[in-house]
Amino acid sequence: MKYIFALFLLFQVFTAEAVAQQFKYHTVTSGETVSSIARSYNISTEDIFKYNPDSKNGIDVSAKLVIPLNASEIQSSKEGNTTATSFRTHKVAKKETLYGLSKQYNVEIDQIKRYNKHLYAEELQTGEEIRIPVISEAQTTTAQVPEPVSAPQQQQSSGVDPQETKNTREHVVIPKETKYGIARKYGLTVQELEEMNPTVDVLQPGIMLKVGTNVLENEPVVITDETFEFYEVKPKENFFRLTRKFGIDRDSLIALNPALKDGVKSGMVLKIPADPESGEGDFDFENFEDAEDTNVNLKNSLTNFSTKELVVMLPYNLDKIEADSTDTYQNAILNDRVLRISLDFYSGVLMAVEEAKELGISTNLRVFDTKYDSQSGAREVNNIINSNNFSDVDAVIGPLLQTTTEAAAAKLSGANVPVVSPLSNKQMRPYSNLFQSRPTDDMLAEAMVNYLQQNSDNKNVVVIADGKSYGIKSELSNALPQAKFINPGNGYVSESAMNQVLSPDRENWVVLESDNVGILSSVTSGLNRLARDKNIKLFTTKKGSGYDNDNVSNNHLGRLNFHYPSVDKEHNQEDSKEFIEEYVAQYGIVPNQYAVRGYDLTLDVLLRLASARDLYDSFARYQGYTEYYENKFHYVPISGGGFQNDAVYIMRVNQDLSLSVENDF
């Protein structure tokens, strides 16, 4: 049914404007009558009287009439002839935007991009020259649409002063319009709309409302359609939360709400499918969200002590190792990183099975080698499942790679056997039986953006982002409108350039977005020197391998209290002392992150199986998060099926180079 609805939604996304009634406003000029206005729009006078009852008694100059558009008028307003007749050259000044240029020259943003192809993928650069198309007046007056009124950028405040009439315009309410819909059209929250119109309790067609002047682009007409409703974005909500909540993918949500191209903002009013089957399934999302910050200790809820049938699939590639040769095995382990990871992870699995046994949970553990190569690995997975009985399996942990994991989930989906992906950070296909235990890189970035947005008040925020980081740069600009930006040049950022935008009085939050070691080194070393007389903290949405380069000093990162998003945290030596001692006694070495991950994930799976009928039932019963030595698990439903762990740590590097959890959700 979800698949059918997905197709239905996709059809709606691209046809909603064709099937829904659309409207526009017409301002009456001297000499116009109802009849002449009706003729100009190719509609009847009755159509005007229907939506403007007072017009039966006559119309006044400057009055605003609601005009229902017919199909030809709608098509005309959408298409029109917009071929450029000539061009003018514009040299981009500092802080200029495509939006500002479109208003300055009275052309659409897409028209500018059409003749400057690089702007589809890149941002405007100060000093560059671009071509501005000149559209003849005859071409731009094919259809009249409400003219957006320029206004200061909307601030994310809690309310709007009703007395600030200089920043308002009038809106005539038409049939079926709601406060959500009107607020959405003008970039307001419902609370702001109500504060601007304190005497209006119930909307009635024809009444006049005060609204903001910032009309959303690409929405010059109001769309009314019973297949959609409106939703106001709550604090902390992001793309991941919204797509899971309403059961639609990111692209469909953006298609319904073009303003989302610039990111999710608290208070935005979104158009969503009104169909009750649009996504929430059997989950109570309101209670789900209320419970998400609850730490659940599953050891206190053990009730199902039947033997757990657990399968582990890992890429050992044993067929390529010569038998009866200790030296061969040792060399393979030393020279093969994937094999080392698999062995470390499996050692943690065995520790968890022993821990569960002490709690009364018996486990029948079976282990299979899935090989390395993604294609041969997928074939091997299918062979393993075909050659063995999986009908009584409670859960499969692994394989490691995306291709092999998807192959296992697809093969076992018919039997509804849960497949838990242990390490992959790739967004996988939404199989109903697939549990993605590691948050994706996009989720890590969104977690940091949310953290910055919620905690950067009264901070001097500076964003340093190179050309390859234009996507996250746009999100940061949206979430942090007060931020100052520095564009690195030639793989380097000078200390003087940073000093010019840093505040001597306020705390400076510098967000660094780059994988270039030269940029990372110059910024961290320069900020380290500037931190002698300024309060500076360093942040990133993605801690890539560049931070591990010898040219990037860990001491500098510690002095700058470097913050980054992470899937795991450094285990507390005191809290995990017993576990470390047992691991050292068993294997002779201190456990690394893969061994701890194997332990945490496997113990979580076994405890969930022992505290509910099965893994699916455990997520319905326990909607909070579980946490172990280094890892946290909080699974939410994925659009199309399956579950995704969205628990992310915001980590801080301290001056002594120890790690602390700054924010753990």
UniProtKB/TrEMBL annotation:
SUPFAM superfamilies: LysM domain, Periplasmic binding protein-like I
Signal sequence, start to end: 1-18
UniProt-listed CDD domains: LysM (cd00118), PBP1_ABC_transporter_LIVBP-like (cd06268)
UniProt keyword annotations, A-Z: Signal
InterPro entries, per the entry: Leu-bd, LysM, LysM_dom_sf, Peripla_BP_I
SMART domains in the record: LysM
LysM domain segment(s): 24-67, 88-132, 169-217
Region described as Disordered: 141-171
Superkingdom in the source lineage: Bacteria
Pfam families: LysM, Peripla_BP_6
Polar residues: compositionally biased ranges: 151-160
PANTHER family per the UniProt record, alphabetical: LYSM DOMAIN-CONTAINING GPI-ANCHORED PROTEIN 2, MEMBRANE-BOUND LYTIC MUREIN TRANSGLYCOSYLASE D
Record-stated family: Belongs to the leucine-binding protein family.
Name of the protein: LysM peptidoglycan-binding domain-containing protein
